[in-house]
Amino acid sequence: MKLTIVEYPDKRLKEKSRVVEKFDTELHKLLDAMYESMISSNGIGLAAIQVGHAKQILLLNIPDENDAQSRDALIEMINPVIIESLGETTYQEGCLSVPSFYEDVNRFERVSVNYQDRDGNTKSIDADGLLSIAIQHEIDHLNGILFIDKLSYSRRKKFEKEYKKMQKEKKSSKTSAKE
Ligand code: Y12
Ligand code: CO
């Protein structure tokens, strides 16, 4: 299954994702295809809506202390719910659906999450650091929220201007490559 990353300003990124009820082969195929898409795009987190599926599914693959990413560290979360959150932190975030833009976002420092794995087993995790930030970023996707929606008015304006300029440049470099 070949998946394409949906990019801002595609309206699908505003959709609320549905609860997953069937833990079947079709779900496993989607999870495996999402993993391939995330890794081939140099991502460390991906929500299903970013590949056009409005389902409460997300993947996290945080690199280790040597910056190496391994499938052993992959976390698949289905139907995640944050049950506790603590503290505050700020991190410069990026998103595969908003390429080439990074900005500081405020988040909870720690979160506790209940979720299901690919076979429907109930799991829970207490997260801090980059994992906590990534979980919050991806759960936002399930609710139709992008990290750019959390920026101040002036930062958001700056983003819209820079992003439009970048899209124009992308378009014109594609056109000149064809000529
Ligand atoms: C902290 C903050 C945000 C997250 C959510 C997951 N975000 C990503 O996985 C972002 C990946 C990303 C990858 C990019 O591609 C390369 O670096 C080659 C990228 O750059 C471009 O699109 C040009 C931007 C974002 C987790 C933890
Ligand atoms: Co994202």
Features of the shown structure:
binds cobalt (II) ion; globular; five-stranded antiparallel β-sheet; 7 strands; alpha+beta; two-stranded antiparallel sheet; 179 residues; binds ligand Y12
Plain-language structure description:
By secondary structure, the protein is of the alpha+beta class. 31% of the residues lie in helices and 27% in strands. It is built from three helices and seven strands, in the order H-E-E-E-E-E-E-E-H-H. It has helices spanning 25-40, 129-142, 153-178; strands at residues 45-47, 57-60, 75-86, 89-95, 98-107, 110-116, 122-127. The strands form two sheets. The protein has a five-stranded antiparallel sheet with strand order 1-2-3-6-7. A two-stranded antiparallel ribbon has the order 4-5. The protein is globular, with a radius of gyration of 17 Å. Residues 42-45, 91, 93-96, 99-100, 130, 133-134, 137 line the site of ligand Y12.
